[in-house]
Amino acid sequence: MKFNETVIKRLRQAETIVFFTGAGISQESGIPTFRDGAKSLWKDFDPDIYASVNGFDNDPSKVWQWYAERRQQVRVLEPNRAHFIIADWQHKAPHVTVITQNIDGFHQRAGSQNVIELHGSIARNQCRKNGHRFPHDFDHPTQQPPNCPECNSLLRPDVVWFGENLPEEAYSQAEMKSFNCDVLVSIGCSMEVFPAASLPYNAARCGAYLIQINTQATDLDTVAECNFQGKASEVLSALWCAVWNSDVEA
Ligand code: BV8
Questions:
Q1: % residues pLDDT > 90 (the chain)
Q2: CATH code of the domain covering residue 64
Q3: Domain that residue 213 falls in
Q4: Quick check: 38 pLDDT over 90?
């Protein structure tokens, strides 16, 4: 895969880089995506039933068990090369932030610091009544949602469901980063879920050099400076070699 000199220079000179990731970056780890491919989650599971507050209230154990299956996947699967390359990139530029829509924690497991989780984490639960938060006990899976030790209301995964606001601190931090970065690399995002998907557009509007890596075209294609169609781990490996092992003068 060839990269033009501008991409190489922009990435080598960048002081602040944002890696904005979606389900596509975990696809090569074996984690299903939501909207693309044969086994995508929303093809088999209705988000109104499995990823909404009403859905949980209507049938807490059904939703709890769906997340239990996803938790088991996250437990046995591993971050892939794309996660590790992003973690290594944090040693190449002074300010590298990962803003992810994913809840799998794979960026942190691959060694990334400064990870902003816009849609929460599957490794945490919060109680339905008061939002008390606890780490999830992966070693003792239960069929039914447990009760909150503080207020006895039901526990639910600490993730953002449709119609729920994103965590305020996380989203405002992510917005600030998107307004103030030299380069934003969007990886494995369908650009269909807002307000998360507005972040790469913010970056482009504020003069950042916008790179997109995706196996398919998205609405971001028309805004990105360059679109690399391919698998995240393959494109990122080639980009790493071109940027850090190249002889292009910065
Ligand atoms: C909210 C739960 C305020 C966690 C999810 C405008 C502004 C504000 C809100 C809205 C708006 N328009 C519509 C809304 C409402 C809604 C929304 O965006 N709906 C869409 C679907 C139309 N947004 C919300 O409700 C958000 N909250 O706005 O609060 C509010 C409050 C009340 C009323 C209104 C507004 C909350 C959204 C979060 C929902 N939670 N999941 C979980 O269980 O995981 S959604 C789900 O989508 C995940 O969080 C996921 O991360 C996110 C985005 O999907 P992607 O990550 O992009 O994954 P996807 O499968 O779609 O695409 C994968 C891509 O990777 C593809 O492009 C594919 O080609 C590519 N790919 C595949 N393999 C590879 C690859 N690329 C590279 N390499 C590979 N190997």
A1: 95
A2: 3.30.1600.10
A3: 1-31+79-119+166-250
A4: no
Residue 214 scores a pLDDT above 60:
yes
Q: How many CB atoms lie within 10 A of CB 48?
A: 13
What is d(CA 19, CA 137) in angstroms, rounded to the nearest whole number?
29
On whether both 69 and 175 belong to a single domain, the answer is no
161 lines ligand 1 (CB under 6 A): yes
CATH number for 245: 3.40.50.1220
Q: Tell whether the model's pLDDT for residue 53 goes beyond 90.
A: yes
Name residues whose C-beta falls within 8 Å of residue 21's C-beta, 6 or more positions apart in sequence: 86, 98, 99, 100, 101, 102, 107, 186, 187, 188, 189
Q: What is the pTM of this model?
A: 0.96
| pLDDT at residue 248 greater than cutoff 60 | no
Protein residue closest via CA to atom 53 of ligand 1: 193
Q: State if residue 148 touches ligand 1 by the CB under 6 angstroms criterion.
A: no
Burial class (CB in 10 A: 0-12, 13-18, 19+), 247: exposed
Q: Are 137 and 223 contained in the same domain?
A: no
Map tokens 């939703």 to a residue: 63
pLDDT band at residue 203, thresholds of 50, 70 and 90?
very high
98 with 13, same domain: the answer is yes
